[in-house]
Specification:
Strand content: 15-25%
CATH superfamily of the largest domain: ANL, N-terminal domain
Strand order of the largest sheet: 2-1-11-10-12-13-14-15-16
Helix content: 25-40%
Shape: globular
Number of domains: 4
Number of strands: 25
CATH topology of the largest domain: Rossmann fold
């Protein structure tokens, strides 16, 4: 990864990258980049980090505003033989400080605002070396002031040594710090994806749009893949405001779109515009979480291609992709779409094995029965930083506990129905949420929370924080008993860096208690 852009440039890659705003590490260099220019930026950034004192084996924490230069900074650190640890700036301060204490990084690359948050909470400095990317701050060095002229020869490492550290989403509490090696992330994940598979592979004439959380694990692997496959253009969206994203998408209409489920929700108004920017899309990709049927239909309908495809992946930071499911216009419009939305496809052939077990006895349950989902995968990470006991507790012999409750069906496909930490005895929260979102046209998102006593509490997220009572009454017909809904706007809901709802935090705020499920497998 330290020489990724150099190798792509030497191979003649002609990809042009368009940004919705300049890189934080190159604020005056514009929004259009070639692969050769990106290679030069990575080399210069590595030289600057070396000038700051970063060396082989050092852990380098990176916490900044959301942008693709998270991965450029990570590549620069890898080039020096250091181990980058990418942390979302959207983490609450207490969680961020906890992760920094577990990491004990030799260097922290951050912004003045994030540093101030850490200093207000932590007992001491977050790292011996602190580099700011936006402006100088007391006791730090500014990235732009460091020497970028001294060449740094790439430092090679063994394939099984730590390459990069990412954190999990943190929907149920403080995220875990996941360590991947070159073998697990590059050889087992990126190499498998960097194949021009018919229909879903990246083509030389593709225009790729990505709206992601660039501090999370998916984009580091994505970077390795797309730079190697060299599409015609790459569009980088750092936010999910439709008005901010629209100009870039219309100037360069994408043929392939990958986005967070939350970003698909937020950008959905663009699908109904006369000059909708998704008209050329042949392939949509979603990871991190299931996408609800109304969003699937909106985007597949927005494409003017004859047969646009949606590829939905289920996986985890620890394992990478585990299953895939494909949606078409026909499947998204099927009468059973709302009840099968949580069926996330079959395990990746030849790579992933899956079984469902009783969460108490760990004995396999019959196909079609609810159980705790275990997987076998050659890309399983090396462990958790500072929580080895927690890592060991999630190993079940040769199997890995996903912490998800679901059903392994007779045809080999899997339905993920709840996190073990959120499960309720009377219903699948996730499936009920799908049905509500299908029936409530006002809803951007629905969340079902277990209450300490009585019926579950539904939370409905709308654009204006309002909900028609008659629409709610009609939407809940035939569903298990629910309390009267709490209606919130998008920004009133606590979220992870990937836009997922922090269910435990929301439940504590609204009910005074954590979700009713077990946290044993999280």
């Amino acid at each position: 990864m330290g020489t990724l852009f150099d190798e792509a440039a030497a191979g003649g890659a002609r990809t042009v990258v368009h940004l919705d705003r300049p890189f934080d590490i190159a604020p005056h260099a514009g929004t259009r980049w070639t692969v050769t220019e990106l290679a030069g930026l990575v080399r210069a950034t590595a030289a600057r980090l070396a000038d700051a004192g970063v060396g082989p084996g050092d852990r380098v924490a990176i916490v900044k505003d959301n942008h693709w230069d998270y991965d450029l900074l990570a590549c620069a650190a890898v080039r020096l033989g250091a181990v980058p640890a990418l942390l979302s700036a959207r983490l609450d301060t207490a969680s961020l400080v906890t992760l920094l204490e577990r990491l004990r990084p030799a260097a922290l690359i951050t912004t003045a605002a994030v540093l101030a948050r850490c200093r207000d909470t932590a007992a001491g400095e977050p790292a011996p070396i602190v580099v700011t990317v936006d402006s100088a701050a007391p006791g730090t060095v500014h990235l732009a002031a460091l020497d970028a002229s001294r060449p740094c020869a790439p430092v090679r490492r063994h394939d099984d040594e730590p390459l990069v550290i990412h954190h999990t989403s943190g929907t149920t509490g403080v995220p875990k710090l996941v360590v991947h090696s070159t073998r697990t992330l590059v050889h087992k994940l990126a190499r498998f994806e960097a194949v021009r598979y018919p229909g879903i592979g990246i083509r030389p004439d593709d225009v790729l749009a990505n709206a992601s959380a660039y501090g999370h694990g998916r984009t580091f692997c994505w970077t390795a893949v797309v730079v190697s496959l060299a599409p015609a253009e790459i569009l980088i969206l750092t936010g999910d405001d439709p008005e901010a994203a629209d100009p870039l998408l219309r100037a360069h209409p994408p043929t392939v779109v990958e986005a967070l489920p939350a970003s698909y929700i937020r950008l959905r108004p663009l699908t109904t515009r006369l000059d909708n920017p998704f008209r050329r899309v042949r392939l949509y990709i979603s990871t991190y979480d299931a996408v609800h049927p109304p969003a699937l239909r909106a985007y597949l309908t927005a494409s003017r291609r004859a047969r646009p495809l949606w590829m939905q992946g289920w996986g985890q930071t620890e394992t990478g992709p585990l299953t895939f499911r494909f949606h078409t216009r026909r499947s998204a419009l099927a009468p059973d779409a709302e009840t099968t939305a949580r069926r996330l496809g079959r395990p990746v052939p030849g790579r992933t094995r899956l079984r469902a077990v009783d969460p108490d006895t760990l004995r396999p349950v019959p196909r079609g029965r609810l159980g705790l989902l275990l997987v076998r995968n050659p890309a399983l990470a090396l462990g958790y930083v500072g929580e080895q006991d927690r890592w060991d507790a999630k190993r079940v012999g040769d199997w890995w506990s996903t912490g998800d409750m679901g059903v392994h069906h007779r045809d080999g496909s899997v339905s993920v129905l709840d996190r073990a930490a959120d499960t309720l005895p009377s219903m699948s929260c996730l499936r009920t949420e799908d049905v509500l979102e299908q029936r409530l046209t006002q809803a951007l998102e629905c969340v079902i929370l277990g209450a300490p006593d009585g019926d579950p509490l539904p939370v409905v997220v709308t654009a204006d924080g309002r909900l028609d009572p008659d629409a709610w009454k009609q939407a809940t017909q035939g569903l298990p008993a629910l309390r009267d809904p709490t209606v919130l706007t998008w920004d009133e809901v606590p979220r992870t860096g990937t836009g997922k709802v922090r269910r435990a935090a929301l439940a504590r705020r609204l009910t005074g208690a954590a979700p009713a499920g077990t946290g044993r497998w999280t």
